[in-house]
Each structure stands twice: as structure tokens, then as C-alpha cells.
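Supplementary Methods S3. Input chains for the assembly prediction are listed below.
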Amino acid sequence: MAQNSSTTHTGTTGSGADDGDSADRRAVLTRRGLLGAAGAAGLAVGAAGGVFGRAAAGDDGAAPSLGAASVPFHGVHQAGIVQNQQSQALLVAFDLATGATRAGTAALMRRWSDSAARLAEGRPATGHENQIALDAGPCSLTVTFGFGASFFDRTGLAAARPEALAPLPDFPDDAIDRSRSDGDLWVQICADDALVAFHALRVLQQQAAGTASVRWQMSGFSRSPGATARPMTTRNLMGQLDGTNNPRASDASFAAKVFVPAGPADPAWMSGGSYAVVRRIRMLLDNWENLPVDRQERVIGRRKSDGAPLSGGTETTAVDLARQNPDGTLAVPADAHIRVAAPAANSGATMLRRGFSYHDGFRADGAPDAGLLFIAFQSDPLTGFVPVQRKLAGADSLSRFLRHEASGLYAVPGGAAPGGYVGQALLES
Amino acid sequence: MAQNSSTTHTGTTGSGADDGDSADRRAVLTRRGLLGAAGAAGLAVGAAGGVFGRAAAGDDGAAPSLGAASVPFHGVHQAGIVQNQQSQALLVAFDLATGATRAGTAALMRRWSDSAARLAEGRPATGHENQIALDAGPCSLTVTFGFGASFFDRTGLAAARPEALAPLPDFPDDAIDRSRSDGDLWVQICADDALVAFHALRVLQQQAAGTASVRWQMSGFSRSPGATARPMTTRNLMGQLDGTNNPRASDASFAAKVFVPAGPADPAWMSGGSYAVVRRIRMLLDNWENLPVDRQERVIGRRKSDGAPLSGGTETTAVDLARQNPDGTLAVPADAHIRVAAPAANSGATMLRRGFSYHDGFRADGAPDAGLLFIAFQSDPLTGFVPVQRKLAGADSLSRFLRHEASGLYAVPGGAAPGGYVGQALLES
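Predicted C-alpha cells for the full assembly:
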């Protein structure tokens, strides 16, 4: 399993000085006391919960410090894939500058990897001691890097571009804004504190100066730790539980679905890597909220309150697609989202979804500019996202309430070892 | 002191069903266990910390559930003023529809007040059982209502408009976008979970249909609970501690500075109310981050690490404006922000600042569209915000790094009693 698979809790509270008044000192001591009690509980959660290393209350009820929780940057896989969603996400795409070289790009990836590793430990990035998010620890910060198809042309590596990075097909009803899509480099920054995430974004942006500039940036959110007792699934802006059918790290097939295996058919530099599909999906919330709950549930195929499939059971009960109501109709309607999207209906295709809600104010028509920053990791988008979306687009009854407005596909290399950097095997090949 | 002055913790976890798998059940039980232990600690914090009722770890180290923490809507003052910042804020201004009546507006304020009170308790709003933020409790939700100057003309209440709502003067270097300023009605929604805040916004927007529509909306954030050990001050996007010099609820003069007293000079319906100044202040972060830390500190007049004034001591030490360095120069420079803004330099003027950071992506020039949603509550803006900003604008060295881009001034009536609604004394006068 990945080295970076479990959240660790250290006594470090970042580099901020804690020499304030006595109330501050008391709080620090209290937190350190908490950490002592929570260390064992945190490990126990890690063991029971597999690679989902999100800081969580242990069985003894002691909560680890949100600020001190950390996710190691180094490992077989990059951080920010198997971890449960943090509460804050900043997605940003960069384009390489005209004339950027392979060597210059490699140097950037080394700087970025070094900074991501240091910030994930709550240390200031080299050359960026001028910090923003003082006082806090790493707050479970993860930084994940990906390469878009255009990256390979720009760096003279066109021959190394994986076949899996072929452009996604156009789907019915897509309304893609290319200026908010694609990009040479993609970075996913996640943390449980917005200032920690913002600081990481500023560091990476400044370190890219002269080599790459921001193409687009989007901000998302998930539930705050402690807001709800559901550890594995979140709710989207439609109020629906999301992530119920995600592959679990404890599944025997998890790695094969999410990570690129070593083998002659795959570029060796992608070993331990994954492919990320990113879609900005606006929700037509005015229409959705006008639907009574029972109709919303038939659109999804699950109960809104607890996520149980309409065929019965609880959230984690497998859906019974054949089940009929007493009147002979299908319990899960023919065009319900979970029927059309079900792996069983798509040759077993699956992916790890790790999306965040977004809300960017209101549009000129008075509707909220809000929805889902859909992020899915998979070992191969041609057997993961593509066939599922091809079936869904315009076909499931949920698609009437959605507009796909931006799209990206990125090769996310495997993780770096200490002293190395993400993409090294490609850029130094 | 206000009825709604202390955070309470109930066993309610909202209306979400918790009949999921065993892991879910265990978490719920753990949380309920926590609540039992945290009830007393929460009350202890309330007693020691005055009216700052933010959910916080008690001295025994037991953290109350973030989701279950609640702030009562009803009270002498509206909620969302004396409470420390929650991690999420949605600011929204509404304009009344053409032909809106005083009776229709009163009905809206009654609907809104009823919903705000119910949501603050973790209950669904009447007629809006179609919830979004299921599973979570109220997450310290507060909803605060204000009336802009234009509200009084639109409702036939021009004679009742307080003198304090006279338009703010133009300040040097202001670059105000009026389309994102002002508004008949202003609502401040704060919570420790973004989905809870979003749900409240959608409920209020739907309940306004036909009576008022959104004029502008802005989203802000503060530190996540548990991210840092500092309970009273936050950090802004410049990395500076903010709020150090705020009046404390335990100060004898607190109420006089923040809340409108009863008296012949003030409209009676504003008794227990306050005036809110709202400014969207963009920070020129590229310029700021290029300054070495010691120069940043001389711009502010405080150490970045711990907020201590450059005249010495800790964050809470009173600044000694006369103190000199060994070379005879002023320890706090002549144009330092805290010198120019110091109450002692402004006839004792003061206000309760309760701002949130914002970050809305990047501008066309590559700079972040980011800064501070400045919110200040005061008993009279003509002795609070106006003289301070008049001195600061273009004069303190911090103003070179700021652009005021939106502005609003609102009368925030006193709180409602159960069965009443905010603004009732005005609208039924």
C-alpha cells in the first residue's frame, strides 16, 4: 500500500510562534494534550479504515487536532487521491511559457514537489518563509500534480504521451468553455483550512513565474470535519449523498481500477500513477429544488435522507436493479442515475470519484453559478469515465439538471520518493 | 448581555437519518458521547469567554461536535455580531421588487426570521423540508439582517431612515463598483460548514421570490475551527493577524461602541441594533508578498509571527506609540497602519471588525482577485468607520496595498424575540 496512505499526527503546530497571551498558551497545551491521546486512536482509525486517512475522531472520542493532521507527500502514489475529501479544494491549471524547455519544466516540478512536501509537513517552502497561514499546522494539505496532453508537445515529449490522454469525446449536451478546460499542468490543492490551501497556491504560482502561468483556477468545498457523522460520503449541492458506490481501498480490485499497473502496455513512468478526469458540472438548482423529494429520489435511484437504493436496505446495500414494486414497476426506475451509471451496466467500468462542490455567486439570470467540480481518478479513462459518461449524457434523468461547462484530462504520475520529484521518470527519460 | 450570547450544544444532529452502516452508527454514538462530555466544557468556555460563543475545546480537552454547535437566533441583539467568525460566510444583498409593499416586506422579514431561527436549531425551514445540508446539525449557523438606505424609500418609510445611514463619503483611492454595493436588504450568513451556509442562502432566496431578488453575493472564509490555537484573532490573506484590537465583550464600553443605545437621539426601533459597514477590499498580494517580512511588519506596526506591536510585548500588549528605537526612530513608524488606525489617534473611535477573506480566482492580469470582506459593526458609523477610514485612505502605508472595490452601509436592527421578527418595530410602526 502507499507510503502516504495514513494520516499522521505530529506535535508540530507549524512555524507560527505561540508566545501570545496566557489564553493562547493554554489552548496550545490543550491541543498537545489532545494529540497525545489521539495518536493511538488515529492509528487505529488508519488500520480499520484502510487508506482513508482523513483525521477523524477515534473510538475513544478524542479528536486529533485539525491543524496538526498531515498527509505525507512522498509515496508510491501521489497524495490527494485515496484520502477522503478535505473541506477545501483549489484546482488550478498552468500553461507553460512560450519557449519553456524540458529542463526548465523539470526544475519547476522539482521546486513544486519540494514545496508540496515541506508544506505537507507544516514547514515553510524554501525561499517562501514569508508565509500566510502561520499558526496552523498542515491541516491535511495535499498537492497533486498532473500533465495535460498539450504538456508533451510543449516539452518535446510528444512520443511519450500516453494513448490514454487522447481527447475526451464530445458528449451530447456538453457546453464546454475551453478557456476553463485543459492546460499543460494541473494541480489539485486540498486542505482542511482555506488559508493553508491559499498559501500553497500562492507559493506554487510564484515558483512557476517565468516558466508557467495560471490558465484557470476553480475553488471547491466539501463538508467540514465534524459537521456530519458520515465519514465516507459527502453531500452535493442537490442534497444527495455522493460517493456511496466509490471503490473502497479495501477492495481487492481497488488498485487495478485506480492506479496504472506496471506493464508493457503502459508508459513505465506512469507506474503507480492515475488519470484524472475533471469536469465543472453546473447544477440547474432552481429546477431541481422545485421537484418534490420523492421525484428527486426517482431521478437518482436512492433515498435522499440516507442514500439507500430504492430497491431497499441501507446506503451500503448493493442496488437490486431487477427489484420490482408491488405494482410491477421497477423499484429503481429505468432512467435513474444509479441504474445508468451502475458498473454492472458499463462492463464493470469504475473510477474513484473525489469531487467538490462549487459556488461562484449568481449568474445574470439569477440562478446560482454552482454545482460539482467532478474529479475522478482511474487507471484508464477509456474504460473508466468515457463509457459511463457516454451512457449518462442525455440518457439518465439526472442529466436534465446538469450542464458540463469545463473539462480536463490529466496524467497523474506516481508519487515521488524523498529527494525525487513528481514526473522525474518522464522528464529525465 | 444578549440572550444569544453563548454557543449551546444539543444532542440533535439535524434531521438526517443515521441508519447507515455500522461505521456510521459508531461515529454517531461517539459524537453523542462527546456531547455529553462537552456540554459542561462548552458552558465553561461561555462563562470565561464572555459572549464569544464559538465552539471551542474546553479546558478538559473535550471538543464539542462542530455540527451540533448552535447559536440561538432570538435575543436582544441579532446573532452573527458578537460571535467569533465562523469558517464560512455568505454575504448577499437583495433589492425589493418594483411595487413591493411595506406589508409584503414585513411578511418577508417574518418568513426569513422564522427560517433563520429554525435553521439555527438544525430544523428544516417551514415549507423547505427539501433540504440540502442533511446529516449535519446547525454548525453554528447565524443569519443577520440589515436595511440599506434605499430600503426606507421603497417601503414608504423614508421618514424613519436613521441619520446614521447617510451615504458614506468618497475616500481617496476608492474604486467602488456600485453594482456590487448597497442594496435594500443585506444578509450575512455564517456557519462552520459551507453546505449548511449554502442551504440557508437558497432557502432565503426562494422565500424572497416575488418580493426581492439578489443584487450581489460574495463568499468569504476564516480559519477552520481547530486549524489554529488562536481563538480570538484570525489571519488575513496577507498573513497578518487581524482583530487584535477589537473591542472585547468583557470591556465595559463594548455595548456602547457596538450597539445602538435606547435614547431620544436614536430611532427606537434600532434599540439593541448596530450599523454594519461592509467593504470589499482587494489586496495587491503580488506587491505585498514581494516585501520582506521586516518591511511588512513596519507597514502594519506589528510582528507578523505573533501580532505583537513593534513597541514590544505580546499580541495583547497595548501599543506604545511614543516608544523609540535605540537610534531615536519611532518603534512603530509614523505611517504604520496601527498608528494611523489607533483609537487614541481617532478620538477614541472604535468598531467591532468581523471580516472574512475572499478569493474569487484570478484577474485578467494574473493577480488573484482576493482580499478582505471587511465587516464592522458599530453604534454609529459617523464616529466608528468614517473617521478611521478618512485617516487611513491614502495615508497609512498599508493603503498602498489595498483597493476598496465595493461598499455598503446597513442598519442592523436589534434581535427578535420568539414569535417576532427582525425589523418588526420599524415595519409595524
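The longest helix of chain B spans residues 22-48. The first strand of chain B starts at residue 8 and ends at 9.
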